[in-house]
Amino acid sequence: MFQDARDYQICFLSLFLLLGFCLKDWTLQLETVGTAAVVCLATQAIASILIAKSSESNLASKDWLPSLRSALITSLSLSLLLRTDHWLTMAFAAMVAIASKFVFRINGKHVFNPANAGIVAAMIFTQDAWVSPGQWGEAGWLALIFIGAGGIVLGRVGRWDTSVVFLAVYSALMLGRDSWLGWSWDVWMHHLSSGSLLLFALFMITDPRSIPDARWSRMGWAIGVASLTFILQTGFAVPEAMFWSLFCLSPLTPLLDRWQSSPRFQWQFPQPM
Is the pTM of this model over 0.85? Predict the structure, then answer.
């Protein structure tokens, strides 16, 4: 139905946010969601104008919609994953998220996933930002919705291998640990039924603008993210382990792209940023 995979992603992330409000009784306020959207869109627009002026070029009208799509996706991701007690903290996270796309770039490609950069910055520089891995509970039907929606998006962008490898390695490591400790299968299933884990694996770690271009590089990189997540979560009891892992290993992407070159992903429409 849609030509651009981001349109599907916007629809699905909006649906997840609605389900969270209606079924999970989140403490997230509508003003916080609105703040994320407004700041992300405004920062994207202002940065695009400044870049255009500095390069003495004009922004074609067709370039605006794709860039604002990406900014809206970032705002939805922040609203789904980041929790805060004050809208100013969300505004800070949103501004950092979009600004990171323009500031941290190598060969025209993002170094960090924007939403992940905003989440990590908020946790580092503010006192009221956190991630709640268990906010979605363990409802099996929700997991099916996440997997189905993620499958549609990944089928469009061709980055399903990253999700599969990440989940497979993480699951195997958790299974080995739980078996060694003599724990039941219920514990293992509890680890894997986290809605935040599925959102991360299907919608964040698969961002084609900030992960390696070549398939084998992506798979090796996904193994690294899964392994570091396992180490931080089980060895150091870090609840936000997957977000820290992605942030720490994102700078490897330019090196992997240089080591193994592959055609760079392009959205359906021109997307300079």
Answer: yes
